[in-house]
Design a protein that fits this description.
This protein is mainly alpha-helical and 340 residues long. The protein folds into 3 domains: 30-165, Four Helix Bundle (Hemerythrin (Met), subunit A) (Up-down Bundle), CATH 1.20.120.350; 182-296, Orthogonal Bundle (Helix Hairpins); 308-339. It is 72% helix and 1% strand. It contains 14 helices and 2 strands; from the N terminus they run H-E-E-H-H-H-H-H-H-H-H-H-H-H-H-H. The chain has helices at residues 2-20, 43-53, 56-75, 79-84, 86-110, 119-132, 145-154, 167-182, 184-205, 213-216, 219-230, 235-244, 250-296, 312-339; strands spanning 34-35, 38-39. A two-stranded antiparallel sheet has the order 1-2. Helix 1 (2-20) runs parallel beside helix 13, helix 5 (86-110) runs antiparallel to helix 6 and helix 8 (167-182) crosses helix 13. It starts with a helix and ends with a helix.
Length: 340
């Protein structure tokens, strides 16, 4: 069923791509750019900035900047380095922030309307705002030290800008976003299973005097214990505690829950994630195939349209009408000659 759904989705996307996109080649005339319904008067500047932004060197500069920013953020966690290289790190941060701002202005200038429709670009804008926040407070004020430290910690979000320049990471992020929608039912079922076993475990082993009160004494403790069993992390120690309390049914309880929680639901969760990653990779491959196909097309290539006037039945009907029209004209000419 999943395979059929994927095939239908890919086929539908192919139809949409081929029917709605305007295929262009290197020899085709440039599409005129419009802004808010009006033709742009800065076509030359637009082309220049577009050429700069899509140049491979610009991508390399941005990746290098993000990488350096990550290294500097890691160095600032060392108090000695932060104290001895404070001026250098401040200047480097300002330069990096200037590069990020330039990138934002270029992208926003090229397409200010669709900029807000892209989730990655909206995220970049939020990261840029967070990057400016430390400069809006008085960091020399001791009362603002905690706020400045907290804002400095949020600067680590700049590292996530690397996702925009990495197709592989974007595929994984798209898969995770799709997984959040598909995996909710698995999580709900797992929660219900844990709720049932938490109440059951609390009733069987949560006695304050003779039971394992630390792990099963409360519903919260039982949930935490079951989470350890789901991840199969330290479950033998938990089972030893129950064995020491002489609970005969504890091993059956533990084995049944691990079989259901780990081998069924937990692996089902992993399976859904893997399927979504494969699907996202398939879509990425499809987009690349369409882009390569667009490069092979020429402006003079014949295009089959789906309009009625270009369909075979309409052409047959039209030719038949022309034949009958010729016959009618011939008869009229004959009658005129006879009348004359």
């Amino acid at each position: 069923m999943a395979a059929e759904f994927t095939e239908v989705s890919v086929e539908q996307r192919l139809i949409n791509k081929l029917s709605l996109e305007a295929f262009r080649s290197g020899s085709e005339v440039e599409v005129r750019q419009y802004l808010f319904g009006y033709r742009r008067r800065d076509a030359d500047l637009y082309k220049f900035i577009k050429m700069l932004f899509f140049h491979p060197l610009f991508k390399s500069i941005m990746i290098s900047t993000i990488t350096l920013n990550s290294i500097f953020l890691a160095l600032e966690t060392d108090y000695k380095v932060r104290y001895e290289s404070h001026f250098f790190l401040e200047v480097a941060d300002l330069i990096i922030l200037a590069v990020y701002t330039t990138e934002f202005l270029m992208i926003f200038y090229l397409d200010p309307i669709n900029y807000w429709k892209d989730g990655y670009k909206r995220f970049d804008f939020v990261v840029l705002l967070i990057a400016y926040l430390p400069y809006t407070i008085d960091r020399s004020n001791p009362k603002m030290h905690h706020t400045a430290t907290m804002l400095k910690g949020f600067q680590v979000l700049r590292v996530l800008k690397l996702i925009y320049y990495s197709p592989g990471m974007r595929i994984l992020m798209a898969a995770l976003a799709q997984t959040a929608k598909n995996v909710i039912y698995v999580l709900v079922l797992l929660f219900l299973l844990m709720l049932i076993f938490a109440i059951l475990g609390h009733g069987l082993y949560g006695d304050p005097e003779h039971g394992d009160h630390q792990n099963w004494g409360t519903l919260a403790a039982a949930f935490f214990t079951l989470f350890s069993l789901v991840t199969v992390d330290g479950w033998t120690d938990l089972q030893d505690d129950l064995d020491n309390k002489k609970f005969v049914t504890s091993r059956t309880f533990t084995i049944v829950f691990i079989l259901l929680g780990f081998f069924v639901f937990f692996n089902m969760f992993i399976g859904v994630v893997i399927m979504d990653i494969q699907k996202s990779t398939e879509y990425q491959t499809f987009d690349e195939m369409v882009e390569e196909f667009k490069k092979t097309l020429l402006h003079s290539d014949p295009v089959i349209l789906e309009e009625f006037c270009a369909s075979i039945p309409f052409i047959d009907l039209y030719l038949l009408s022309l034949d009958r029209q010729d016959a009618t004209i011939y008869k009229c000419v004959t009658l005129v000659e006879l009348a004359g």
